[in-house]
Amino acid sequence: MSSDVEDTIEVIETVPAAPQSKRTEISTHLKERIVATKVKALTAKAGERAATMAATPNQLAHEKANASANAQIKMLTDLVKSLLRTMEEQKEQHANHLETLTKTFAKQKEEHANQLETLTKTFTQQIEALNIKCWTFMDEMGHL
Length: 144
Hints:
By secondary structure, the chain is mainly alpha-helical.
C-alpha cells in the first residue's frame, strides 16, 4: 500500500536562550529531613512487625499502659517545671516589690519625722510667744 500523503516536518528557527541549569539538586537540610522521615517510618514498620509477631495481647496492653503512663509522667513533669519557674519569677517580683515598699516607707518615715520636728518647733515658738503676750498683758493689767 502506498500513500500519497506526504509527511512534513516544520522547522522553526529560534534564538538560543541562556543555558538553564536543571534544578534537580535538593538542599542538604531537606535531604536530611527526608532521610530522617524514611528512617523513622521504616523503624516504626519494623517495630510494628516485630511487636505483632512476638507480642501477646497482654504484652500489647501492658506496653500501651506503660506508654500512656510515661506520656502522663512527662506531661506532669513539664507542668511542675513550668509551675516552679512561674513561682520563682513571682518570688523575684515580690522581693523587688517588697524592697521598693521598704524604701518608700523608710523615706515617708523620715519625711514624717521632719514634719513632726518642724511642727514641734513651730508650736513651741507659738507657745512661747503666747506666754510672752500673756505676761505682758498681765503686767499691763497690773499697772492700771
